[in-house]
Amino acid sequence: MTDITNTPTSEYDAQLGDYFALLKPRVMSLVVFTAFVGLLAAPVSVNPVIGFCAILFIAIGGGASGALNMWWDADIDAVMRRTRGRPIPSGRVQPGEALTLGVALSGLSVMMLALATNLLAGGMLLFTILFYAVFYTMWLKRLTPQNIVIGGAAGAFPPVIGWVAATGSLSVEAWLMFALIFMWTPPHFWALALFMRSDYDDAKVPMLTVTHGRPATRLHIFVYTVLLAALAIGTAFTAIGGIFYFAVALVLNAAFLLGAYRIWKRDEVMAEGDDYAEERKFFRLSLAYLFLHFGAILGEAALRTFGLGGW
Protein backbone atom coordinates (compact mmCIF):
# COMPACT_ATOMS: atom_id res chain seq x y z
CA MET A 1 0.00 0.00 0.00
CA THR A 2 1.32 3.44 -0.94
CA ASP A 3 1.34 6.06 1.79
CA ILE A 4 -0.86 8.92 0.69
CA THR A 5 -1.31 10.58 4.06
CA ASN A 6 0.11 13.78 2.58
CA THR A 7 -2.38 13.88 -0.26
CA PRO A 8 -3.52 17.49 -0.61
CA THR A 9 -7.02 18.02 0.64
CA SER A 10 -9.65 19.44 -1.66
CA GLU A 11 -10.83 22.98 -1.42
CA TYR A 12 -13.66 21.94 0.86
CA ASP A 13 -13.79 19.89 4.04
CA ALA A 14 -15.14 16.38 4.09
CA GLN A 15 -18.90 16.20 4.22
CA LEU A 16 -21.07 13.56 5.82
CA GLY A 17 -21.70 12.08 2.38
CA ASP A 18 -17.96 11.53 1.90
CA TYR A 19 -17.75 9.41 5.04
CA PHE A 20 -20.88 7.53 3.98
CA ALA A 21 -19.26 6.87 0.59
CA LEU A 22 -16.41 5.11 2.43
CA LEU A 23 -18.93 2.46 3.46
CA LYS A 24 -19.56 1.51 -0.20
CA PRO A 25 -23.35 1.98 -0.03
CA ARG A 26 -24.03 0.13 -3.29
CA VAL A 27 -22.19 -2.93 -2.01
CA MET A 28 -23.91 -2.47 1.35
CA SER A 29 -27.30 -2.72 -0.37
CA LEU A 30 -26.40 -6.23 -1.52
CA VAL A 31 -25.18 -7.11 1.99
CA VAL A 32 -28.40 -5.85 3.56
CA PHE A 33 -30.69 -7.58 1.09
CA THR A 34 -29.00 -10.99 1.17
CA ALA A 35 -28.71 -10.90 4.97
CA PHE A 36 -32.40 -9.99 5.16
CA VAL A 37 -33.27 -12.96 2.95
CA GLY A 38 -31.13 -15.26 5.09
CA LEU A 39 -32.90 -14.01 8.21
CA LEU A 40 -36.42 -14.49 6.83
CA ALA A 41 -35.72 -17.74 4.99
CA ALA A 42 -34.71 -19.37 8.29
CA PRO A 43 -37.36 -21.81 9.61
CA VAL A 44 -38.00 -19.81 12.79
CA SER A 45 -39.90 -16.65 13.65
CA VAL A 46 -37.78 -13.66 14.59
CA ASN A 47 -38.85 -10.76 16.78
CA PRO A 48 -39.09 -7.72 14.47
CA VAL A 49 -36.94 -5.58 16.75
CA ILE A 50 -34.23 -8.23 16.94
CA GLY A 51 -34.46 -8.75 13.20
CA PHE A 52 -34.08 -5.02 12.55
CA CYS A 53 -31.06 -4.83 14.86
CA ALA A 54 -29.48 -7.84 13.19
CA ILE A 55 -29.75 -6.34 9.70
CA LEU A 56 -28.57 -2.94 10.95
CA PHE A 57 -25.43 -4.31 12.56
CA ILE A 58 -24.66 -6.60 9.62
CA ALA A 59 -24.97 -3.55 7.35
CA ILE A 60 -22.64 -1.53 9.60
CA GLY A 61 -20.14 -4.40 9.55
CA GLY A 62 -20.30 -4.49 5.76
CA GLY A 63 -19.74 -0.74 5.65
CA ALA A 64 -16.79 -1.06 8.02
CA SER A 65 -15.22 -3.57 5.63
CA GLY A 66 -15.67 -1.09 2.80
CA ALA A 67 -13.96 1.69 4.75
CA LEU A 68 -10.99 -0.55 5.58
CA ASN A 69 -10.79 -1.62 1.94
CA MET A 70 -10.73 1.99 0.75
CA TRP A 71 -8.07 2.86 3.32
CA TRP A 72 -5.71 0.12 2.19
CA ASP A 73 -6.45 0.40 -1.54
CA ALA A 74 -6.21 4.19 -1.76
CA ASP A 75 -3.10 3.95 -3.95
CA ILE A 76 -4.86 1.64 -6.41
CA ASP A 77 -8.03 3.73 -6.36
CA ALA A 78 -6.02 6.83 -7.26
CA VAL A 79 -4.84 5.16 -10.49
CA MET A 80 -8.05 3.55 -11.71
CA ARG A 81 -10.55 5.72 -13.60
CA ARG A 82 -13.47 3.91 -12.01
CA THR A 83 -12.34 4.70 -8.46
CA ARG A 84 -10.20 7.85 -8.55
CA GLY A 85 -13.18 9.95 -7.47
CA ARG A 86 -13.54 8.08 -4.18
CA PRO A 87 -13.15 10.13 -0.96
CA ILE A 88 -9.52 9.24 -0.17
CA PRO A 89 -7.78 9.52 -3.57
CA SER A 90 -9.73 12.71 -4.29
CA GLY A 91 -8.41 14.19 -1.04
CA ARG A 92 -11.78 14.73 0.62
CA VAL A 93 -11.06 12.25 3.43
CA GLN A 94 -7.68 11.45 4.95
CA PRO A 95 -6.55 7.78 5.12
CA GLY A 96 -6.29 7.88 8.90
CA GLU A 97 -9.91 8.94 9.17
CA ALA A 98 -11.03 6.02 7.01
CA LEU A 99 -8.99 3.59 9.11
CA THR A 100 -10.43 4.95 12.35
CA LEU A 101 -13.96 4.79 10.99
CA GLY A 102 -13.50 1.23 9.73
CA VAL A 103 -12.03 -0.10 12.97
CA ALA A 104 -14.61 1.67 15.14
CA LEU A 105 -17.57 0.46 13.10
CA SER A 106 -16.13 -3.06 12.98
CA GLY A 107 -15.93 -3.27 16.75
CA LEU A 108 -19.36 -1.71 17.21
CA SER A 109 -21.12 -3.95 14.69
CA VAL A 110 -19.61 -7.21 15.96
CA MET A 111 -20.27 -6.43 19.61
CA MET A 112 -23.83 -5.24 19.06
CA LEU A 113 -24.77 -8.12 16.75
CA ALA A 114 -23.53 -10.62 19.33
CA LEU A 115 -25.54 -8.89 22.05
CA ALA A 116 -28.68 -8.50 19.93
CA THR A 117 -28.71 -12.05 18.54
CA ASN A 118 -26.07 -14.60 19.52
CA LEU A 119 -22.32 -15.07 19.81
CA LEU A 120 -22.07 -17.24 16.70
CA ALA A 121 -23.55 -14.51 14.52
CA GLY A 122 -21.21 -11.93 16.03
CA GLY A 123 -18.23 -14.22 15.52
CA MET A 124 -19.15 -14.85 11.89
CA LEU A 125 -19.45 -11.12 11.25
CA LEU A 126 -16.00 -10.59 12.77
CA PHE A 127 -14.56 -13.36 10.59
CA THR A 128 -16.19 -11.84 7.49
CA ILE A 129 -14.73 -8.39 8.17
CA LEU A 130 -11.26 -9.83 8.76
CA PHE A 131 -11.52 -12.05 5.71
CA TYR A 132 -12.40 -9.14 3.43
CA ALA A 133 -10.19 -6.45 4.95
CA VAL A 134 -7.10 -8.55 5.66
CA PHE A 135 -7.10 -11.83 3.74
CA TYR A 136 -8.56 -10.42 0.52
CA THR A 137 -7.76 -6.70 0.46
CA MET A 138 -4.29 -6.75 2.01
CA TRP A 139 -3.07 -10.04 0.55
CA LEU A 140 -4.99 -11.87 -2.19
CA LYS A 141 -6.04 -8.90 -4.30
CA ARG A 142 -2.44 -8.05 -5.22
CA LEU A 143 -1.11 -11.59 -5.19
CA THR A 144 -3.15 -13.91 -7.41
CA PRO A 145 -5.47 -13.79 -10.44
CA GLN A 146 -7.82 -15.94 -8.36
CA ASN A 147 -8.31 -12.98 -6.01
CA ILE A 148 -11.96 -12.56 -6.96
CA VAL A 149 -12.71 -16.28 -6.65
CA ILE A 150 -11.39 -16.65 -3.11
CA GLY A 151 -12.21 -13.12 -1.99
CA GLY A 152 -15.79 -13.59 -3.15
CA ALA A 153 -16.39 -15.60 0.01
CA ALA A 154 -16.50 -12.38 2.01
CA GLY A 155 -19.47 -11.11 0.04
CA ALA A 156 -21.16 -14.49 0.33
CA PHE A 157 -21.34 -14.57 4.13
CA PRO A 158 -24.18 -12.04 4.82
CA PRO A 159 -27.09 -14.48 4.19
CA VAL A 160 -25.33 -17.04 6.39
CA ILE A 161 -24.96 -14.46 9.15
CA GLY A 162 -28.63 -13.54 8.78
CA TRP A 163 -29.61 -17.21 9.06
CA VAL A 164 -27.40 -17.69 12.13
CA ALA A 165 -28.78 -14.52 13.73
CA ALA A 166 -32.25 -16.06 13.45
CA THR A 167 -31.48 -19.68 14.35
CA GLY A 168 -28.23 -19.61 16.31
CA SER A 169 -26.90 -22.44 14.15
CA LEU A 170 -25.66 -23.29 10.66
CA SER A 171 -27.38 -25.47 8.08
CA VAL A 172 -27.12 -26.71 4.51
CA GLU A 173 -29.63 -24.07 3.35
CA ALA A 174 -27.47 -21.26 4.70
CA TRP A 175 -24.45 -22.60 2.84
CA LEU A 176 -26.48 -22.92 -0.37
CA MET A 177 -27.15 -19.18 -0.24
CA PHE A 178 -23.44 -18.67 0.42
CA ALA A 179 -22.59 -20.81 -2.61
CA LEU A 180 -24.91 -18.84 -4.90
CA ILE A 181 -23.06 -15.60 -4.19
CA PHE A 182 -19.65 -17.28 -4.16
CA MET A 183 -20.15 -18.79 -7.63
CA TRP A 184 -21.79 -15.63 -8.99
CA THR A 185 -18.94 -13.31 -7.99
CA PRO A 186 -16.25 -14.40 -10.52
CA PRO A 187 -18.32 -14.06 -13.73
CA HIS A 188 -19.77 -10.80 -12.40
CA PHE A 189 -16.37 -9.18 -11.78
CA TRP A 190 -14.58 -10.78 -14.72
CA ALA A 191 -17.19 -9.29 -17.06
CA LEU A 192 -16.40 -5.89 -15.54
CA ALA A 193 -12.68 -6.55 -15.95
CA LEU A 194 -13.13 -7.28 -19.66
CA PHE A 195 -14.21 -3.73 -20.43
CA MET A 196 -12.13 -2.08 -17.66
CA ARG A 197 -8.87 -3.96 -18.23
CA SER A 198 -6.72 -0.86 -18.66
CA ASP A 199 -7.58 0.16 -15.10
CA TYR A 200 -6.23 -3.09 -13.69
CA ASP A 201 -3.18 -2.88 -15.95
CA ASP A 202 -2.40 0.63 -14.75
CA ALA A 203 -2.91 -0.31 -11.10
CA LYS A 204 -0.89 -3.52 -11.50
CA VAL A 205 -3.68 -5.62 -10.01
CA PRO A 206 -3.31 -9.26 -11.19
CA MET A 207 -6.83 -9.65 -12.47
CA LEU A 208 -7.39 -12.66 -14.72
CA THR A 209 -7.65 -10.39 -17.77
CA VAL A 210 -4.15 -9.08 -17.04
CA THR A 211 -2.39 -12.34 -16.17
CA HIS A 212 -4.08 -14.79 -18.55
CA GLY A 213 -5.61 -12.56 -21.21
CA ARG A 214 -9.15 -11.91 -22.31
CA PRO A 215 -9.80 -15.16 -24.21
CA ALA A 216 -9.02 -17.16 -21.05
CA THR A 217 -11.21 -14.82 -19.04
CA ARG A 218 -14.11 -15.35 -21.44
CA LEU A 219 -13.76 -19.11 -21.05
CA HIS A 220 -13.63 -18.82 -17.27
CA ILE A 221 -16.83 -16.75 -17.29
CA PHE A 222 -18.63 -19.42 -19.31
CA VAL A 223 -17.42 -22.33 -17.15
CA TYR A 224 -18.35 -20.60 -13.90
CA THR A 225 -21.74 -19.65 -15.31
CA VAL A 226 -22.47 -23.28 -16.21
CA LEU A 227 -21.57 -24.38 -12.67
CA LEU A 228 -23.57 -21.51 -11.19
CA ALA A 229 -26.63 -22.40 -13.24
CA ALA A 230 -26.53 -26.02 -12.03
CA LEU A 231 -26.26 -24.84 -8.42
CA ALA A 232 -28.96 -22.18 -8.77
CA ILE A 233 -31.49 -24.50 -10.39
CA GLY A 234 -30.65 -27.33 -8.00
CA THR A 235 -31.42 -25.05 -5.06
CA ALA A 236 -35.07 -25.17 -6.15
CA PHE A 237 -35.27 -28.71 -4.79
CA THR A 238 -34.11 -27.84 -1.28
CA ALA A 239 -35.91 -26.49 1.77
CA ILE A 240 -35.48 -22.87 0.64
CA GLY A 241 -36.67 -23.55 -2.92
CA GLY A 242 -39.93 -24.47 -4.54
CA ILE A 243 -42.00 -24.08 -7.69
CA PHE A 244 -41.88 -20.29 -7.69
CA TYR A 245 -38.12 -20.20 -7.19
CA PHE A 246 -37.68 -22.93 -9.84
CA ALA A 247 -39.55 -20.90 -12.47
CA VAL A 248 -37.52 -17.77 -11.71
CA ALA A 249 -34.24 -19.70 -11.73
CA LEU A 250 -34.98 -21.33 -15.08
CA VAL A 251 -35.59 -18.00 -16.81
CA LEU A 252 -32.66 -16.21 -15.18
CA ASN A 253 -30.14 -18.96 -15.79
CA ALA A 254 -31.21 -19.44 -19.40
CA ALA A 255 -30.53 -15.74 -19.98
CA PHE A 256 -27.28 -15.83 -18.01
CA LEU A 257 -25.99 -18.89 -19.84
CA LEU A 258 -26.81 -17.33 -23.19
CA GLY A 259 -24.97 -14.16 -22.23
CA ALA A 260 -21.92 -16.09 -21.03
CA TYR A 261 -21.90 -18.16 -24.24
CA ARG A 262 -21.98 -15.03 -26.37
CA ILE A 263 -19.08 -13.55 -24.42
CA TRP A 264 -17.09 -16.77 -24.79
CA LYS A 265 -17.52 -16.75 -28.55
CA ARG A 266 -16.38 -13.15 -29.01
CA ASP A 267 -12.89 -11.91 -29.77
CA GLU A 268 -11.33 -8.51 -29.18
CA VAL A 269 -12.09 -7.26 -32.67
CA MET A 270 -15.78 -7.94 -32.14
CA ALA A 271 -15.75 -6.53 -28.61
CA GLU A 272 -13.91 -3.34 -29.46
CA GLY A 273 -16.14 -2.87 -32.50
CA ASP A 274 -19.22 -2.40 -30.34
CA ASP A 275 -17.45 -1.02 -27.23
CA TYR A 276 -17.87 -4.30 -25.30
CA ALA A 277 -21.65 -4.14 -25.57
CA GLU A 278 -22.18 -7.83 -24.76
CA GLU A 279 -19.82 -7.68 -21.78
CA ARG A 280 -21.54 -4.59 -20.40
CA LYS A 281 -24.94 -6.18 -20.94
CA PHE A 282 -23.83 -9.34 -19.13
CA PHE A 283 -22.47 -7.29 -16.23
CA ARG A 284 -25.78 -5.45 -15.83
CA LEU A 285 -27.67 -8.73 -16.08
CA SER A 286 -25.49 -10.21 -13.34
CA LEU A 287 -26.69 -7.54 -10.92
CA ALA A 288 -30.33 -8.36 -11.58
CA TYR A 289 -29.52 -12.08 -11.56
CA LEU A 290 -28.43 -12.17 -7.93
CA PHE A 291 -31.12 -9.85 -6.58
CA LEU A 292 -33.86 -11.78 -8.37
CA HIS A 293 -32.61 -15.15 -7.16
CA PHE A 294 -32.60 -13.98 -3.57
CA GLY A 295 -35.93 -12.29 -4.17
CA ALA A 296 -37.29 -15.67 -5.26
CA ILE A 297 -35.94 -17.28 -2.07
CA LEU A 298 -37.65 -14.53 -0.10
CA GLY A 299 -40.84 -15.14 -2.08
CA GLU A 300 -40.76 -18.82 -1.19
CA ALA A 301 -40.32 -17.91 2.49
CA ALA A 302 -43.34 -15.59 2.27
CA LEU A 303 -45.43 -18.29 0.59
CA ARG A 304 -44.54 -20.79 3.29
CA THR A 305 -45.94 -18.48 5.96
CA PHE A 306 -49.33 -18.97 4.27
CA GLY A 307 -48.90 -22.71 3.96
CA LEU A 308 -47.88 -22.44 0.32
CA GLY A 309 -44.52 -22.55 -1.42
CA GLY A 310 -42.20 -25.50 -1.81
CA TRP A 311 -43.36 -28.44 -3.87
From TrEMBL:
Cross-referenced CDD domains: PT_UbiA_Cox10
GO molecular function: protoheme IX farnesyltransferase activity
Keyword annotations of the record: Cell membrane, Heme biosynthesis, Membrane, Transferase, Transmembrane, Transmembrane helix
Transmembrane regions listed in the UniProt entry: 27-43, 49-72, 119-136, 148-168, 174-195, 216-237, 243-261, 282-303
Miscellaneous notes: Carbon 2 of the heme B porphyrin ring is defined according to the Fischer nomenclature.
Subunit structure: Interacts with CtaA.
Protein name as it appears in the record: Protoheme IX farnesyltransferase
